[in-house]
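Give me the fold.
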Amino acid sequence: MSETVLSLSVVGVYLLLLAAIGVWSYRHSGQDPVSYFLAGRGLGSLALTLTTLATLLSAFTFLGVPADAYTHGLGIFLGVGVTTALISGLFFWVGYRVWLAARHFGFITPSEFFGHRFNSPLLALLYCLSALTFTAPYISIQIIGGARTLAAVLGEGIPYWPLAVVVALVILAYVLFGGSQAVVWTDVVQGIILVLGMGVALVAVALRWGQEAGSQLDPWLSLPGPQGRWSWQTLLGNQLLFFMATPLFPQFFQRFYMAKSARPFQTLMVVWPLLILLVFFPAALIGVWGRLAFPELQQPDQVMPLMLQTLPSGVAAVVITAALAALMSTADSQLLTASSLVTRDLVVTFLKRPLSPHQEELLGRGVVLGIGLVSFAIAVRPPGLIAQIATWSFQGYAMLFPILMAGLYWKRATRPGAVAGALVSSSLTLGWLSGLLPKAWTGGWLPVIPAVVIGTAVLVGVSLLTQPDQERVAAYYENGPWAGEGCSASAGSQPLENQEGAA
């Protein structure tokens, strides 16, 4: 059996497994928003851990991290990998409290938390629009990564865009038909595959290239890297970026709503650092070793697929499947969450078009298709390297971090303060990312860092000059989900309170 046929067989079995899960989920899942978007709020420790892991790890992890390490060295592991491992604390500080609120008030989308906590439809709309703006480009890098990975399987001669079509169609198919039930269970499968696959890749690449590594790789194995990129400021900036952005990824935030009980959050805190390090460190190290095999790559995003071509076909097929698992598990979750944002937040809440549960589900499937097409259009002509697109998107997610933390932990935070802080942080971030504001004003930091600092100051200042909504504070801290253990898990889902009112 030729190497290509073997690789295609492994990948084909994997894709058929995803399709089978989608068909099963379509037949067994409910036809209401909670079932379609949140898997019925019934995930235990294993399912929530693996779907959260698979949702976070993406084409950025399997292709972007090796590419950055190939060019700039292991700094990407310290700037991104270690930080991502240590965010396990956020599962308690953020995830658990968000879960309590979602169970108590019946939230389905992330926007509903922001709008309800501060009684501000404008704040909910701001989160919704920012999430949608930065989600399509991030989905596009999953399609880009999938096409480039398949190209490694098939070899040269097949155009890029047909492979991108295949990846987009597979993802769309099981999200359209299976909803969150399909997404979660494919994530469980893909989470296992991607951790095992990266472990196999590290061992195989180490046996093939590790013994050839010498002093020529020293600049890539130390800071600030061969081109001086990973200075203390860049390192700290990336660590802050990922710490702030991760809980605000809409697909990640919505995972907090899916837990069946508090126990899965305890499990996540314990196993998360190990799982992340088992994936990020091999990805970065393989990128560095790529300097030995391909010292003059013009397109660093190709280093992981090219390194796989140097391995035995059976090993390469397993790792390629892991790469596809990482990117598909992120894209499907992003599509589903973006669909819920459009359906519930834009149509039902802001356009005030009431829908039956079945109509909401059908509209959600239509939105999945529309966003998938937009993401594919971006992927046809990639605007930059995968790591560059990802960093741009992450900053868009991180800009509302102070609003999230104030909403969870500061009773004194007011609606005017939250809205003002969000508008300032968002405007500055978008201004710097778009080039409308001089980059020199950032002081050399990633734009979102000074934007968040200024936005936080505005939030605090305006909140201290205005009065909080005592009724809303009481609904959360005194009589609601955060009042004590007795009011948490047993509260059950209740209808959303009225979100009408001035912004």
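The chain has 20 helices and no strands.
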